[in-house]
Amino acid sequence: MQKQNETPASTEISFLNCIDLSNPDTQQSVSLLKQACLDCGFFYVTNHGISQEFMEEVFSQSRKFFELPLSEKMKVLRNEKHRGYTPVLDELLDPDNQIHGDYKEGYYVGVEVPEDDPEAHKPFYGPNVWPEDGILPGWRQTMEKFHQQALGVARAVARIIALALDLEADFFDEPEMLGHPIAVMRLLHYAGQISDPSKGLYGAGAHSDYGLITLLATDDVYGLQICKDKDAQPQVWEFVAPLKGAFIVNLGDMLERWSNCIFKSTLHRVLGNGQERYSIAYFVEPSHECLVECLPTCKSEKKPPKFPPIKCGTYLSQRYKDTHANLNVYNKHQS
């Protein structure tokens, strides 16, 4: 297996811009965000309106789920709509450099769409999968509340991104965009393995996210690393410091397509250091029918569009299929 050329694991820490959503000076926020998007595609968001007390409750409830016996967690195994539990090694993000899948387990929660709704047949839409209330009382209510509040944060960030791309502030608020989004929350647990890139062992392999933006809430354990220049040889990796009460936000591949590569999605990975680590990723994408094509402010005669238009639902379905284990693996294991 060909290992990627990179510098030895270091303790370098990347210093990221911080966007304060309560700042009345919108232009300052736009300037800071634009600088971050041009530099590394990662930044912090603070004063986002979700209380620290509630964030701690969400993490506490997440921990309670992952502490359940594996047999109990497998009762809510991920389905074909990407809802429910993903076991350790289920996801393989960097097949060129990983000898196994990611040493993490997760739990997907999406937009709740009743089974009898006409929209429920679409990928990533449909009813969520929930642990029984008798096992984890109030768990569903906590996660649904967080999902709803995080979407409000994502919409606020998207308005600043729109201004940074010289669009109207409400560009991403349209119904076909974040009016009816594909918003997927994923609880994550890294059990404490020690990663070793030289042996192809990672908490999460190097990847860029698929969608528009991702909000990441973390505990205080280091692990997330970014590579600001994915084409550099050797690659240089820097840790992103956890910041209490903040979301770490990164741009996805879809926004890179939309912006004609003016804003870049950034390679990132997770290295385990022997400590347990919990995080919550919130992936924000537009609706299924949204046509992702080069923005009018990002193209010119000298800079024509680099990507053909593509529907969001089509694009996401393929990306998830490429990185997740076939569910038949679990059916054989359980039979």
From TrEMBL:
Residues 181-286 form the Fe2OG dioxygenase domain. Coiled coil: none annotated. GO terms for molecular function: dioxygenase activity; metal ion binding. Keywords: Iron, Metal-binding, Oxidoreductase. It holds the Pfam family 2OG-FeII_Oxy. Transmembrane segments: none annotated. InterPro entries: DIOX_N, IPNS-like_FE2OG_OXY, IPNS-like_sf, Oxoglu/Fe-dep_dioxygenase_dom. The keyword Amino-acid biosynthesis does not apply. It comes from the Eukaryota. Belongs to the iron/ascorbate-dependent oxidoreductase family. This is 2OG-FE(II) OXYGENASE FAMILY OXIDOREDUCTASE. It comes from Salix viminalis (Common osier). The lineage of its organism: Eukaryota, Viridiplantae, Streptophyta, Embryophyta, Tracheophyta.
